[in-house]
Amino acid sequence: MGDPAQVQHEWMTGFVSLKHLEMNFVNLSSIGPQWIEILNKHPFLSKLYLANYSLFGSIPTPRFLNFTSLVVITLSANNFNSKFPEWLVNVSRLVYVDISYNTLYGRLPLGFGELPNLEYLDLYGNGNIRGNVFQLLRKSWRKIKFSI
User: Fold this and answer.
1) Closest listed residue to residue 8, CA positions, set 24, 25, 32
2) What is the pLDDT of residues 16-28, one digit of tens each?
3) For strand 145-147 and strand 47-49, is the pairing parallel, antiparallel, or unpaired?
4) What end-to-end distance do the CA atoms of the chain give, in Å?
């Protein structure tokens, strides 16, 4: 049968036109870091809600970035303990990012200042995220709700 975590979540790859996935409070800790690769196979996914999910470790970097339609991503209140996921700056359609209440650290990439549609960025409750807010906000953000 193969890896139990992979078999358990193979059903998700069958939804080739998946646009909205909301699985808050669902325990998928058994899937490990493969969750990013499974979800990255859905190019039409525009809204991804994985809050209070019992995901842990680092936020993995996809081997190739296929989140071409992603507008909303919520990864709040998990157990991530890692550097800030820099690949998010390459998801150009992002409007809403909530990765609050984790233990993220490191520098907030300046590329966030280049995201033309970003309106909401919630980093509240993280350990040690650094960045120059002036450099981030001086670019194209006309309106943004910023929570740290």
Assistant:
1) 32
2) 788 998 888 877 7
3) unpaired
4) 44
